[in-house]
Design goal:
Elements lengths: L12 H19 L2 H14 L3 H26 L3 H8 L3 H32 L3 H17 L3 H26 L4 H9 L6 H12 L3 H11 L8 H31 L9 H39 L6 H5 L1 H18 L4 H25 L3 H4 L6 H25 L5
Membrane topology: Multi-pass membrane protein
GO biological process, one term: iron ion transmembrane transport
InterPro entries: NRAMP_fam
């Protein structure tokens, strides 16, 4: 087992709790981006109260994916691409390329979302808002304690989003009773919605955000398992609370028979719910969701190439900054390349089964985890998620490719 494998969790409980909470919120806020807001709004509009069932199933799949990936990464003391290369030489490079491609493409959308958030919040031009947001994100990685700064931004933004979302959900007076019933007895089921939600919350770089953050903070080894499990479940819970709150807010608007603007569904919901103040609240939530996704996408994507060259490892914060600059410049001068986003979105659905399947194999290799024994129930649960998302991901890719031509 490598030297990293025997590093124990920091004995300072205050520091440990801060790191664990930071990793949880980094993963959660990375998954709560502009796409998250739009997807949840659109699917609630289509499925009404039955969307609760989609949320329930997606959260169950999320939990099995995250529990496995976070544990295997921290027990081994290795990043995802390093484990993949030990499972099959060269596989880590393939996984890194997919992660970086997806992270860069989606970060263009995240930067755009940040610009739209400032536009709704303060009336700033979207491109100007995107540039201001990018400068804010870059500043996080310029400061001396970049990791701690990133943790704090993720936590504060996460709490602000949750509180504002719960407020809007409350004032729309949704039919909570019906939502609870339809969560367990849906009148309509959408497989596409389930695939989209799972891909959006644990697809691509998001799957590794928390685990890689814990490694960088020195949290690894078998001794860390209880805390790592708590951190991963906390991240999924935060994502779940946000999705349920937004679901109820949209359901409250839909149940009143109000028409949602298809050009900007989530903004329309907030405006219908609380007028001009609601629109400003949407701006705050959109910006917070987007800026944390910009930070999470850049940080995690670069973490996949850090081990490929000593120079990248040494100057990884500057590589992260370059990643953010490229995303921003692309949006400012080219816009959001729709065709690229469609293709990468389809490929993103395949990254989860590839990554999870690879790590599950690594969990049974001594050169990866040493004497650690991975629980059978986690292997079975993770294996089922791998198969389900692999099949559905391929189906999605086949459907999306013709749209490019």
């Amino acid at each position: 087992m490598s030297k990293k494998n025997i590093i124990a969790v920091n004995s300072n409980k205050k520091v440990t709790n801060s790191v664990l909470l930071g990793a949880a919120f980094l993963m959660a806020t990375s998954s709560i981006g502009p796409g998250f807001l739009t997807q949840t709004t659109v699917f609630t509009q289509q499925l009404a109260a039955s969307f609760g069932f989609v949320i329930l199933i997606s959260l169950i799949l999320d939990v099995f994916a995250q529990l496995n990936i976070w544990r295997i990464i921290t027990v081994s003391g290795l990043r995802g691409q390093e484990i993949a290369n030990k499972v099959l030489p060269g596989l880590g490079v393939v996984l890194a390329i997919l992660i970086v491609m997806g992270g860069l493409a989606f970060n263009i959308g995240n930067v755009a979302g940040a610009g739209l958030g400032l536009n709704a919040m303060l009336g700033i031009d979207p491109i100007t808002g995107a540039i201001i947001s990018a400068v804010f994100a870059i500043f996080i990685f310029v400061v001396k304690e970049a990791g701690k700064a990133m943790d704090k931004v993720a936590q504060v933004a996460g709490f602000v989003m949750i509180l504002l979302m719960l407020y809007v959900a409350f004032i729309t007076s949704p039919p909570v009773g019906e939502a609870i019933v339809r969560t367990f007895a849906p009148s309509e089921i959408s497989i596409f919605a389930i695939v989209t939600l799972v891909g959006g919350t644990v697809g691509g770089y998001i799957t590794f955000a928390g685990g890689h953050r814990l490694l960088d903070a020195g949290v690894s080894g078998i001794e860390s398992i209880p805390d790592v499990t708590k951190s991963s479940v906390t991240g999924i819970a935060v994502t779940g609370i946000m999705r349920v709150a937004l679901f109820l807010a949209v359901l409250g608007v839909v149940s009143q028979g109000l028409a949602i603007d298809p050009e900007n569904p989530p903004a329309s919901v907030f405006k219908l719910a609380a007028g001009e103040i609601g629109y400003r609240i949407f701006g705050v939530i959109m910006w917070a969701a987007a800026i944390t996704s910009v930070v999470g996408a850049a940080y995690t994507s670069v973490s996949f190439i850090r081990s490929f060259h000593p120079k990248i490892e040494k100057y990884h914060n500057w590589v992260i900054i370059l990643f953010i600059i490229v995303s921003t410049v692309t949006f400012a001068f080219i816009g959001r390349p729709v065709n690229v986003l469609i293709l990468v979105g389809a490929l993103n659905a395949l990254i989860l089964p590839l990554a999870l399947g690879t790590l599950l194999i690594g969990a049974y290799k001594k050169e990866v985890v040493g004497e650690y024994k991975h629980p059978l129930w986690m292997t079975i649960g993770g294996g089922l998620v791998t198969i389900i998302m692999g099949v559905l991901g391929i189906m999605t890719l086949i459907e999306q490719i013709p749209l490019l031509f």
